């Protein structure tokens, strides 16, 4: 159970209904919902002042926010997550939406690339959002990998496989990457990639990250045992080695160890970033909803992502389809559309053998 679910359980019936009505009103209109609007729709008759008090309580819980002093309320990211997890009512796929998707994907004569282009167009057209289509992973050994920076938040990876297959993929790199770090990633991956599939390459980089982590721990432990240093926030992204009594305790050999630890930390961070480059989608069946900063790819734009993996005939996840839009997406409608499209794509690819 998460804290968000516990918060929902702690709401009384009135608070829960006010919260649900505010979120539903916001998702429908994109505008703050005021207390007077709610007095006309709540199942029990209560005053606007009573509703304002409930909304203030919900705001203190971090579930609602007031964008302007005199305006109504909108849900926070935490509130949207709680609504999606506990109160969202997902309907059946609308017959008209189903027909449009079936019509767009009805032809099975095209190659997989063309089919997936049609998937993207279908999802964009039906949902009026941006579509996301992750193509089936190609499991032949890799001959060469090249990363090219296109902009601060966009990069291209070119994958050349041993069987002659070439793939170009545009992706959002981890924050803070530069053309220079892209070249480093390219050089490192090509040094370990040849003869390995993408899956094997990911495992190899994970081993490299673990080895660097162990080296750092072993060196740091020597300094800590001698009283020269201590860990702060060990294991977290903000971890650092604090050196104490530098003038009295640190010897020339300790200084060399510290320099090596710094170098190892830099190397570890690069390898972590490279591992992030290779992550395409998380495993697990079913539709997943990422709201705002929950999704690293779109955290800065405040967008939501509704995504579902699709599988081959062996029930192995080979790709994913999704819709990107504002956080006030009509989740109840989008979820069944994405789910149906993913199942349909999996079936069409499986039918091709």
TrEMBL record:
Belongs to the HrcA family. Gene3D superfamilies: 3.30.450.40, Heat-inducible transcription repressor hrca homolog, domain 3 (3.30.390.60), Winged helix-like DNA-binding domain superfamily/Winged helix DNA-binding domain (1.10.10.10). This is Heat-inducible transcription repressor HrcA. One of its GO terms (molecular function) is DNA binding. PANTHER family: HEAT-INDUCIBLE TRANSCRIPTION REPRESSOR HRCA (PTHR34824). It comes from Thalassorhabdomicrobium marinisediminis. Negative regulator of class I heat shock genes (grpE-dnaK-dnaJ and groELS operons). Prevents heat-shock induction of these operons. The keyword Transcription applies. The keyword Protein transport does not apply. Keywords: Repressor, Stress response, Transcription, Transcription regulation. Residues 115-335 form the Heat-inducible transcription repressor HrcA C-terminal domain. InterPro entries: GAF-like_dom_sf, HrcA, HrcA_C, WH-like_DNA-bd_sf, WH_DNA-bd_sf, WHTH_transcript_rep_HrcA_IDD. HAMAP family: HrcA. GO terms for biological process: negative regulation of DNA-templated transcription.
């Amino acid at each position: 159970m998460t804290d968000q679910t516990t918060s929902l359980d702690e709401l009384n019936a009135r608070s829960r209904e006010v919260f649900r009505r505010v979120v539903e009103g916001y998702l429908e209109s994109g505008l703050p919902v005021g207390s007077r609007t709610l007095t006309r729709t709540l199942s029990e008759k209560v005053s606007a002042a009573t509703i304002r008090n409930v909304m203030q309580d919900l705001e203190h819980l971090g579930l609602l926010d007031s964008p302007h002093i005199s305006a109504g309320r909108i849900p926070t990211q935490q509130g949207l997550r709680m609504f999606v997890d506990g109160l969202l009512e997902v309907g059946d796929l609308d017959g008209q939406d189903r027909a449009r998707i079936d019509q767009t994907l009805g032809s099975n004569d095209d190659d997989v690339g063309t089919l997936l282009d049609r998937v993207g167009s279908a999802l964009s057209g039906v949902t009026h959002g941006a579509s996301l289509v992750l193509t089936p992973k190609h499991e032949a050994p890799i001959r060469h990998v090249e990363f090219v920076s296109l902009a601060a938040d966009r990069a291209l990876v070119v994958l050349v496989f041993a069987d002659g297959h070439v793939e170009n993929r545009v992706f959002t790199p981890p924050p803070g990457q530069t053309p220079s770090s892209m070249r480093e990633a390219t050089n490192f991956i090509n040094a370990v990639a040849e003869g390995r599939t993408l899956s094997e390459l990911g495992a190899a980089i994970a081993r490299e990250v673990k080895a660097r982590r162990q080296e750092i721990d072993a060196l740091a432990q020597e300094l800590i045992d001698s009283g020269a240093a201590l860990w702060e926030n060990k294991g977290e992204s903000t971890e650092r080695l604090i050196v104490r009594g530098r003038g009295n305790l640190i010897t020339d050999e300790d200084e060399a160890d510290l320099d090596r630890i710094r170098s190892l930390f830099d190397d570890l961070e690069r390898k972590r970033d490279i591992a992030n480059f290779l992550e395409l989608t998380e495993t697990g069946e079913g539709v997943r909803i990422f709201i705002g900063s929950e999704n690293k790819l779109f955290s800065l734009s405040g967008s939501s992502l509704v995504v579902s993996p699709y599988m081959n005939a062996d029930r192995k996840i080979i790709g994913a389809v999704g819709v990107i839009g504002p956080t006030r997406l009509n989740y109840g409608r989008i979820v069944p559309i994405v789910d149906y499209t993913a199942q349909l794509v999996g079936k069409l690819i499986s039918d091709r053998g």
